[in-house]
Write a structure and sequence with these properties.
two-stranded parallel sheet; alpha+beta; single chain; 5 helices
Length: about 100
């Protein structure tokens, strides 16, 4: 992972300068009717908590799941917990328990 970050480091400044890099069409998302899983770690930066909260407000069938002890990449740092949460969400959706 470190090698991948270093390899892509030269593009980071361009990404950060892109005025549309973080633009999200909230109006379009509000029309998405499928169950949506939003995960967040309790060790994330506040900016990411805000983003998840914003998405949860506009996605009509969003479910939020917190992954204790994880940061921005729980699939890397807590893969078993993350997989359990995703599989649980899929099973709930498949059985009709989700909205």
């Amino acid at each position: 992972m470190r090698a991948r970050w270093l390899f892509n480091a030269s593009t980071l400044l361009d990404e950060e300068r892109d005025p549309d890099a973080r633009r999200v069409d909230l109006g379009a998302l509000s029309h998405f009717r499928q169950p949506t899983l939003l995960t967040s770690g309790d060790q994330r930066l506040p900016m990411f908590h805000f983003m998840v909260e914003m998405l949860a407000r506009v996605l009509p069938h969003a479910e939020r799941r917190m992954i204790p002890g994880s940061g921005h990449r729980p699939h890397v740092t807590h893969p078993a917990q993350y997989a359990d949460i995703v599989l649980s969400f899929i099973r709930e959706f498949a059985s009709g328990q989700s909205p």
